[in-house]
Amino acid sequence: GAVVSQHPSWVICKSGTSVKIECRSLDFQATTMFWYRQFPKQSLMLMATSNEGSKATYEQGVEKDKFLINHASLTLSTLTVTSAHPEDSSFYICSARGDSEQYFGPGTRLTVT
Amino acid sequence: QKEVEQDPGPLSVPEGAIVSLNCTYSNSAFQYFMWYRQYSRKGPELLMYTYSSGNKEDGRFTAQVDKSSKYISLFIRDSQPSDSATYLCAMSPAEGNTPLVFGKGTRLSVIA
């Protein structure tokens, strides 16, 4: 199947700092990528839909000024968590949709201290 | 009523058992159905993809879709301890840019 990578796989940062997470589709072009967060033992929660060359579409309740998404190319989308707080600590997962199937990255574990 | 319902389990079975996982949904527009397996602290891995109604088999895994009943299933034959994971069903009405709607996931443990 198609491969989606994420970097970093885990990060620890201090409150008030910003963290950037990269999501890349390695062997296919993705005009659309999705960002999810997942709390322990819970399902995936869609945060936003990232469209190449245009603004992201955020789900209700997700602060667009806090979670900045940039989809600069057909293979790269980035999520920047600005002014991170401990409650932002979570598992962030991106996905990219090929022709039909949707493939997920391995996830990034963010811990804000 | 949630769009996609999935029993969270946990489900515990002995090695070699046949496992049946299922989801129900309410949106009749759903056409694309997927099953993902997620190990702890990892991203979901696509297991099966089905369009519309019918069955699909891949090794020990069989996916079934019954659109008339709005019910999908994943069967795992000869279950192995390595199958222990959370299984998520997902579906969408269209291809391309439409986000998937996920079930909550079922935690499966296969005991050796």
Explain this structure to me?
- The complex is a heterodimer of chains A (113) and B (112).
- With 113 residues, chain A is mostly beta strands.
- Chain A has no helices and eleven strands.
- Chain A has strands at 4-7, 10-13, 19-25, 32-38, 45-51, 57-58, 67-73, 76-81, 90-97, 102-104, 108-112.
- In chain A, a hairpin with a 5-residue loop joins strand 5 (45-51) and strand 6.
- Chain A is globular and about 40 Å long.
- Chain B is mostly beta strands and 112 residues long.
- Helix content of chain B is 0%, strand content 54%.
- Chain B contains no helices and eleven strands.
- Chain B has strands spanning 4-6, 11-14, 19-25, 32-38, 45-51, 54-58, 61-66, 71-76, 85-92, 101-102, 106-111.
- In chain B, the strands form two sheets. In chain B, strands 2, 4, 5, 9, 10 and 11 form a six-stranded mixed beta sheet that branches. A five-stranded antiparallel beta sheet of chain B has the order 1-3-8-7-6, with no helix packed on it.
- The model of chain B has no long low-confidence stretch (mean pLDDT 92).
- The interface between A and B is medium-sized, with 27 and 23 residues.
Q: What is this entry, summarized?
A:
The complex is a heterodimer of chains A (about 110) and B (about 110). By secondary structure, chain A is mostly beta strands.
Q: Would you spell out the secondary-structure blueprint of this structure?
A:
The complex is a heterodimer of chains A (about 110) and B (about 110).
Chain A: E1 4-7, E2 10-13, E3 19-25, E4 32-38, E5 45-51, E6 57-58, E7 67-73, E8 76-81, E9 90-97, E10 102-104, E11 108-112
Parallel strand pairs in A: 2-11
Antiparallel strand pairs in A: 1-3, 3-8, 4-5, 4-9, 5-6, 7-8, 9-10, 9-11
Chain B: E1 4-6, E2 11-14, E3 19-25, E4 32-38, E5 45-51, E6 54-58, E7 61-66, E8 71-76, E9 85-92, E10 101-102, E11 106-111
Parallel strand pairs in B: 2-11
Antiparallel strand pairs in B: 1-3, 3-8, 4-5, 4-9, 6-7, 7-8, 9-10, 9-11
